[in-house]
Amino acid sequence: MLICHCNIITEKEIEEAIVAILDQDPWQLVVPAKVYHWMHKRGRCCGCFPNVVETIIRVTENYHARSEADAVTIVSHLDRVRGLRVQFGSSTHERRKAGHRAA
Ligand code: FES
């Protein structure tokens, strides 16, 4: 699935970059700019960043679920990673809210 239309980057490419970054240092905070820098790309319109943040959260959770680290360390790190939603605007969903009425 294409995530970034400006740079033609697929979800799989982003997942591979995140894993490669986490292999270097599993406890670093991965942000979209770091992923794009890793791939020698740069955000242009940055409209894809909320989806990249969700991919970072999912891949980081899976990465640490396979690790041997203790649960407290993993949970506190994942809280920092989920904080990216606030920073990059993916905390609000793009669809209509449940209580939305057209008329
Ligand atoms: S869609 Fe990714 S930078 Fe524009």
Key words describing this protein structure:
binds FE2/S2 (inorganic) cluster; 53% helix; two-stranded antiparallel ribbon; mainly alpha; single chain; 5% strand; 103 residues
Give an account of the 3D structure:
- The chain is mainly alpha-helical.
- The chain is 53% helix and 5% strand.
- A hairpin with a 4-residue loop joins strand 1 and strand 2.
- The chain starts with a strand and ends in a 15-residue tail after the last helix.
- The mean pLDDT is 85.
- Residues 4-7, 43-48 line the site of FE2/S2 (inorganic) cluster (FES).
List the SSEs and their pairings.
Elements: E1 2-4, E2 9-10, H1 11-24, H2 32-38, H3 49-65, H4 71-82, H5 84-88
Antiparallel strand pairs: 1-2
The protein binds FE2/S2 (inorganic) cluster.
FE2/S2 (inorganic) cluster binds near residues 4, 7, 43, 46 and 47.
Q: Which molecules other than protein and nucleic acid are bound? A: FE2/S2 (inorganic) cluster
Total individual domains: 1
Rg, nearest Å: 15 Å
Low-pLDDT runs? none
Mean pLDDT: 85
**End-to-end distance, in Å?**
35 Å
What is the strand content? under 5%
Shape: globular
Helix and strand sequence: EEHHHHH
Reading side by side through the largest sheet, how are the strands ordered?
1-2
Structural class: mainly alpha
Largest sheet: 2 strands, antiparallel
Tally the helices.
Answer: 5
Short description:
This protein is mainly α.
